[in-house]
Write a structure and sequence with these properties.
The protein has two helices and no strands. The chain has 89 residues and is mainly α. The longest helix is centred in the last third of the chain and has 27 residues.
Length: 89
């Protein structure tokens, strides 16, 4: 009797993989945004301790959200890349 080989799941379409990365990253960026701006006043931010940024609070919130989203999405994408089966599998 031969041992049964594990059935590999079908590869997900690219669009689905992207959504599986971006949606949780979006949610966590929102949570991180709330946690940071509970403590930090966007009006008190300075460029490396010199001049004030001079942006509206809405602009600061938007830019930091996009930065958080990008960093978290990059982390998720790297995880997906590392999880993918190699050429020998």
């Amino acid at each position: 009797m031969q041992p049964q080989r594990a059935v590999e799941p079908a590869a997900r379409p690219f669009r689905e993989r992207v959504l599986l990365i971006l949606w949780p990253a979006f949610l966590m960026a929102g949570v991180l945004e709330m946690l940071v701006f509970v403590v930090v006043d966007p009006g008190s931010l300075h460029w490396y301790g010199t001049d004030p940024i001079g942006w509206s609070a809405s602009a600061v919130y938007s830019v930091t959200f996009l930065i958080f989203w990008g960093v978290i999405a990059t982390s998720g994408a790297l995880t997906q890349l590392l999880e993918a089966p190699g050429p020998h599998e």
